[in-house]
Amino acid sequence: MIVDSDVISRHVIADYLRHCGYGVVEAATTDEAITALSEASLGIDVILCDVGAIGSQPAFGLAHWVRSHQPQLEVRLAGSLEGVADTAADLCESGPHLIKPYEPEAVVDYVKQLRAARNRARET
After folding, report:
1. Which helix (H) or strand (E) holds 108?
2. Which of 9, 14, 54, 74 has the lowest tally of Cβ within 10 angstroms?
3. 66-115 residue pLDDT tens
């Protein structure tokens, strides 16, 4: 599954993967992705999601949802370092929560969010 609100980027990578023999499901938003993930017949096993994906929850939220509801799936977030830092900083301001037992990836994401917020505070 490719999750990206930029239709050109999404179609380019989806077409390339199809050319390589993969079945691809496309989603323009994180909400569309969650809807598609509820359809077992689609056989989704890998999700590539733009870190700037739009929807009722951001890409990090989608990744967390997948880990909670379908942990067998592989989720990879993609984007520029600047985009990741901006998104993480925004999430930090809205109060992300870590749940015990800690997932190593969640801790790393949280640390990145804290550092991004600190850097933004220094710039102002």
Report:
1. helix 104-123
2. 74
3. 999 999 888 888 876 565 556 555 555 544 445 545 566 775 776 677 66
